[in-house]
Amino acid sequence: MGTVCLVVQVAASITDWLSVGVDFFTGVAIATVLAVYVPRRLNEDRSLKTYFISELNKLSTDYNNFLQSLCVGDVKAEIIIESFKFYSTKISDIQNSVNDYYKLDMSINRYIIKAQIEITDSSEINEQYNQEYVTFTPTTKRKIRNFQTIFNRNLISSIAAINGANRKS
Questions:
Q1: Is the dihedral of CA 101, 107, 113, 115 positive or negative?
Q2: Is residue 8 predicted with pLDDT exceeding 70?
Q3: Helix and strand counts by DSSP (H, E) for the chain
Q4: How crowded is residue 114: how many other Cβ atoms within 10 Å of its Cβ?
Q5: pTM for the predicted model, two decimal places
Q6: Contact 78/67 with Cβ under 8 angstroms?
Q7: Exposed (0-12), middle (13-18) or buried (19+): which is 104, by Cβ within 10 Å?
């Protein structure tokens, strides 16, 4: 009877050690995932969000300065047309990347396109195309400021959406 007790006790001791070993390796694996993998994914996602947001902020600053220079009247017609093409293309690229990566429906490019159509079709552009600078009427300047306000409002909403978005699976 003493040998059966000893065998059961040895078997229990081995299973205890195996249990401790499995628990140890499981703990190490979970700790490694939590300490290495999860923060890296979060940092990569945060870095990408920061990049998109900083690009939108830079674009917004440049675009707002451009619209301000239109109101002041120190831009040639050719530059106005080319600048709208540039801003439209740039915002489309950013917008498409954000929408693809985060499954968002950001669509702020349409506000630039609407402003582009209204401003480049204005009588001031057509009448002053070959002059050194285009001077807009107070009515057109008011429209430009309205376009700026609408663009900025929607840009802020888009930035908030990017900040709260989860990465596409």
A1: negative
A2: no
A3: 6, 0
A4: 13
A5: 0.73
A6: no
A7: middle
Give 40-58 pLDDT, tens digit per residue: 565 567 788 899 999 999 9
98-153 pLDDT, tens digit per residue, is: 999 888 888 999 999 999 999 999 999 999 999 999 999 999 999 999 999 999 99
Convert the pLDDT of each residue in 30-40 to its tens digit.
656 555 565 55
Q: Round to whole Å and give the CA distance between 68 and 79.
A: 14
Phi, psi for residue 167 in degrees, rounded to 5: -65, 145
Q: Which residue has the tokens 């990465």?
A: 167
Rounded distance between C-alpha atoms, residue 71 and residue 97, angstroms: 32
User: Cβ of 49: how many Cβ atoms within 10 Å?
Assistant: 19
Residue 20: Cβ-neighbour burial (10 angstroms; 0-12, 13-18, 19+): exposed
CA dihedral over 76, 79, 85, 86, signed as positive or negative: negative
Cα separation, 17 vs 14, in Å, equals 5
